[in-house]
Amino acid sequence: MKWTKKLAGISAVSLLALGLAACGDDDKDNASGGSDKTAGEMVDYKITGIDPGAGIMEATDRAISDYGLDKWELTTGSGAAMTASLKKAIDKEEPIIITGWTPHWMFTKYDLKYLDDPKGSYGGEEEIHTIGRLGLKEDYPEAYQILQNFKWDEEDMGEVMIAIIDGEDPKVAAENWVKDNEDKVAEWTDGVEKVDGEKFNLAYVAWDSEIASTNVMAKVLEDQGYKVKMSQVEAGPMWTSVADGSSDALLAGWLPVTHKTYAEKYEGKFEDLGTSMTGVKIGLTVPEYMDIDSIEDLKE
């Protein structure tokens, strides 16, 4: 009788262990596609987005319509909240679909992929433009020239973003990058005379990429003698402030798709000072371990 009870106990423990193991396997299968669940069922038909004023959110609403994703919901929040949700999902190897863009540090930190967009809801490659208020050239010719000369690449921006994500203060991260890249900064300031304490206002949206670029440019302008004020706002107010002249410039003009609405709304009320970065991109993004490759897959 004692042996029978012991064997029964062992059997119960074994069955419990097998059951728990099976549950764990199911979770991974759900993410990797080994489950009978559709992609929508795995994520409760939810796309994790960022702030509601961002152009990528408008593009995602367009994608939901273009692809007939009637069951799907685009949630709003902030860039920080989105990346926190992404980290939580990846730590547990769970499925998640987010609004993503490059350059962004998350593509360096995690194995991610864009979902193919055959209908072109997100457009093709984008560019980041520097946008100035009307009259900027006449009022601040030195700053105008530096902003026109401003060009860098994804690797440059990535260095600043990663430093900030790793805990560095954005201003310190920018100072370190400027110090380590004197040759590149010299190209932006070549032939530009220094000023004596003139005030200059930069508006920016709280994307990691724009936090990096705005802090770097603020440091460069300060080294030229400007007193720089940085104003963090959402995308709409950022464009509005340049259009009405309350801000002098922004470095976050994602065109032709992401900020198309604002560029069209304020046409004739700003000056495009040029492209600071090419080959940038926006779109729906998932971890590599998810067994889906196209937005079309979300219809199933």
UniProtKB/TrEMBL annotation:
Any signal peptide, and if so, which residues? 1-22
Compartments it resides in: Cell membrane
Which Pfam families has this protein been placed in? Answer: OpuAC (PF04069)
Q: Is this entry keyworded Signal? A: yes
Give every ABC-type glycine betaine transport system substrate-binding domain span: 38-179, 201-299
What is the source species? Sporosarcina gallistercoris
Q: What is this protein called?
A: Glycine/betaine ABC transporter
Predominant location of this chain? membrane
Q: Which UniProt keywords apply?
A: Cell membrane, Membrane, Signal, Transport
Q: Which CDD domains match?
A: PBP2_OpuAC_like (cd13639)
